User: Which sequence fits this backbone?
């Protein structure tokens, strides 16, 4: 094949490559601005001082996400001068335990819906699906009455863990149930012949085979609990019990505009989720695609 024919084959892909590069730059541009503001050492959104009559290069400099001087002072101030470490601890405890608690309930429920026949099985699955169609704020008042007024768990980690774990169950059950349907029942029938109990089959055979779906469901549950703001801001009315997203709002409000602290705190909050995503990304494709084979 000649060089001319190779160029003709590569030419139609050039517009697509340009489009992909432009889309990538458009996507990461806000992220670069967050990083720039965090490392600028300032609390302002402006990283360049424009002259009275700015030229073209001055305007380009003003919109280029690159600080005039790199500094980690915002990160140091957020972790030392603010109770941000305490807020991170609250978010970590709440996210981990709500994920574990919700995942344990979702795994057993999804396995029951997948393998057993009982009255109300179809209605139960449909109720889980219907519950996902309503906005989360619709449950705010009932949850507040139950958690705060009835159980007395306002401004406590336990109350927030209960809320996050229960609200994540419908989505988790649907994810896991679809994956359990793809596991051959013959494996369990063979285990029954060998004398294995239902609990042993679930823990020793089914769960290890469903590891991709469990990992991805845990990732989504953790991300939801880690990033959630409205419920945490409603139930937590003590400063020392704030989660990280609730604490971030006080850096930028009606009486203060500490954009440097806000950007630095946002980067710190995003690090655990990014690391967890990188660790579990090997399960992402198999966990999502296999769970959608059967419903």
Assistant:
């Amino acid at each position: 094949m000649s060089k001319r024919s190779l160029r003709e084959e590569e030419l139609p892909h050039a517009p697509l490559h340009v489009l992909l590069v432009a889309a990538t730059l458009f996507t990461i541009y806000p992220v670069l601005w967050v990083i720039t503001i965090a490392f600028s050492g300032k609390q302002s959104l402006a990283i360049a001082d424009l002259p009275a009559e700015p030229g073209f290069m001055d305007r380009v400099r003003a919109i280029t996400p690159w600080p005039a001087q790199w500094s980690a002072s915002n990160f140091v101030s957020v972790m030392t001068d603010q109770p941000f470490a305490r807020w991170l601890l609250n978010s970590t405890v709440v996210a981990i335990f709500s994920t574990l608690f919700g995942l344990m309930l979702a795994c057993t429920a999804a396995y029951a819906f997948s393998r057993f026949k009982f009255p109300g099985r179809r209605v139960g699955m449909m109720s889980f699906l219907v519950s996902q169609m309503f906005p989360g704020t619709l449950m705010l008042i009932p949850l507040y009455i139950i958690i705060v007024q009835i159980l007395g768990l306002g401004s406590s980690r336990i109350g927030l863990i209960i809320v996050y774990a229960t609200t994540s169950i419908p989505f988790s059950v649907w994810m896991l149930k679809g994956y359990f349907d793809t596991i051959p029942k013959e494996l369990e029938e063979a285990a029954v012949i060998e004398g294995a109990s239902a609990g042993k089959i679930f823990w020793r055979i089914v769960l290890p085979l469903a590891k991709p779906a469990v990992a991805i469901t845990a990732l989504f549950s953790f991300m939801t609990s880690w990033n959630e703001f409205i419920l945490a801001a409603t139930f937590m009315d003590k400063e020392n019990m704030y989660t990280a997203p609730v604490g971030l709002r006080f850096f930028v409000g009606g009486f203060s505009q500490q954009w440097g602290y806000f950007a630095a705190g946002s980067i710190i909050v995003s690090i655990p989720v990014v690391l967890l995503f990188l660790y579990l990304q090997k399960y992402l494709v198999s966990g999502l695609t296999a769970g959608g084979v059967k419903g």
Summary: The CA atoms of residues 207 and 214 lie 8 Å apart. The chain is about 70% helix and 0% strand.
